[in-house]
Design brief:
Growth Hormone, Chain: A, mainly alpha, 16 helices
Length: about 400
């Protein structure tokens, strides 16, 4: 092995370690935060829904701002270091807050800083792997492993020391990631793209792109919102915090093998069939949860998340990029992340809190299942429309 190859392998190991720490931090806090709100602060499910729905809606506005600052400074690594420091400080302050009004303020602050971590990290990592001809998926895989292990680890710690510990685990892992990220090679945002405000009218005039945003809203909104309510749902069935950790370990862990084979499956079955399958599997999973299944069966159903998330993400990104001209591909992904993923998560998390309070927590899964089922119909229409257009082009 030559010196250049050894250096590249060393840098890839740094990225993998960083992603492991970053997602370990996210997995330590996010899935158990609703349990902290309910069992430590004694908040209602509607209040929990309001708080948890703030993060995706704030991210819609804060992520482009971080991106613009990164473009102006031409130093995404510096922005990443700053956002990590701010996130650590806010997270430690977060653990001391008990009033709902102050929680609203702190959640907004943390959402603004934490929302920068993944996009900036992805930007730096993607630039590097494209430069050396590497595989981004091999790096991102360590993030999935970190997230999967974190919920189980933090759930066990929370049972031993109390739920407040999740803030300290989160801050400590971000701190470790901060130390690792110092050794990440400096990257500049040299790739130029169309301004997002210029690209929006063009993309919004594309009927297929707009229908796809609705599809993403309907499918991934429930998937993301489930991360908020799943822990509470498991505990309502008699599960423990360790049990919550096991469920998330299975869910996140099952994504890894599907991420590994996603490219081959998309090539074999087509992007439309893959997206239809992810929506249908999700719908069946949510409807099944309404039946209050035994916990061991519930844990087994967590394996379906590998298909619904591990295949959805790469297939959705491919669909988005196919619908956009070259100069607007980055803008299209930004809109897809914000309006599709972000607004969907906000809506389902926000409505889920009030629905759970008015009825029972399992009632939210009727909403989730119904939304996913509507999405199946939308993708079937897009598939049919694509086949018709293909036949016209051949003719």
């Amino acid at each position: 092995m030559n010196t250049l190859q050894a250096r590249q392998n060393s840098i890839l190991l740094i990225f993998k370690s960083y992603y492991f720490c970053l997602f370990f931090a996210i997995g330590s806090l996010g899935p158990l935060l609703s349990s902290y709100f309910k069992h430590v602060l004694d908040l209602s499910t509607s209040q929990i829904g309001i708080l948890m729905s703030l993060t995706p809606i704030i991210a819609i506005f804060s992520q482009p701002l971080w991106g613009m600052v990164s473009d102006i400074t031409q130093n995404p690594k510096k922005m990443l270091l700053i956002s990590q420091i701010m996130t650590i400080i806010i997270a430690l302050f977060y653990s001391t807050i008990t009033s709902f009004g102050m929680l609203l303020f702190v959640v907004i602050l943390l959402s603004m800083t934490q929302s920068a971590l993944i996009p900036l990290s992805d930007s730096i990592a993607l630039n590097y792997v494209q430069k050396i001809g590497g595989n981004y998926g091999a790096i991102r895989l360590y993030g999935s492993i970190g997230f999967a292990l974190a919920v189980l680890f933090s759930g066990r710690l929370a049972e031993m020391f109390g739920l407040t510990i999740i803030f300290f685990v989160f801050a400590f892992c971000i701190l470790i990631g901060l130390g690792i990220s110092i050794f990440i090679p400096k990257s500049s945002t040299i790739n130029k793209r169309e301004p997002i405000l210029k690209g929006i009218p063009i993309l919004f005039s594309n009927k297929r792109f707009m229908l796809f945003l609705i599809f993403v809203f309907l499918v991934f909104g429930p998937i993301s919102a489930n991360n908020t309510y799943f822990g509470l749902y498991i505990q309502s069935l008699g599960g423990t915090l360790t049990g919550v950790g096991i469920a998330f370990l299975i869910s996140a862990g099952s994504e890894a093998p599907f991420l590994q084979v996603s490219k081959k499956l998309i090539q074999r079955f087509g992007v439309y069939n893959i997206l239809i399958a992810t929506a249908l599997v999700s719908a069946l999973r949510w409807y099944f949860y309404f039946t209050n299944p035994p916990l061991f069966i519930l844990f087994l159903t967590c394996l379906t998340q590998g298909l619904s998330v591990g295949l959805f993400i790469p297939a959705a990104l491919q669909f988005v990029r196919e619908q956009a001209p070259d100069s607007l591909k980055a803008t299209a992904v930004t809109i897809y992340s914000g309006l599709g993923l972000g607004v969907g998560e906000w809506f389902c998390t926000f409505i889920g809190g009030f629905l759970s309070e008015a009825y029972t927590i399992k009632s939210i899964y009727i909403l989730f299942g119904s939304l996913s089922l509507v999405a199946v119909g939308i993708m079937q229409y897009l598939k049919k429309d694509s086949n018709i257009n293909d036949k016209k082009e051949i003719a």
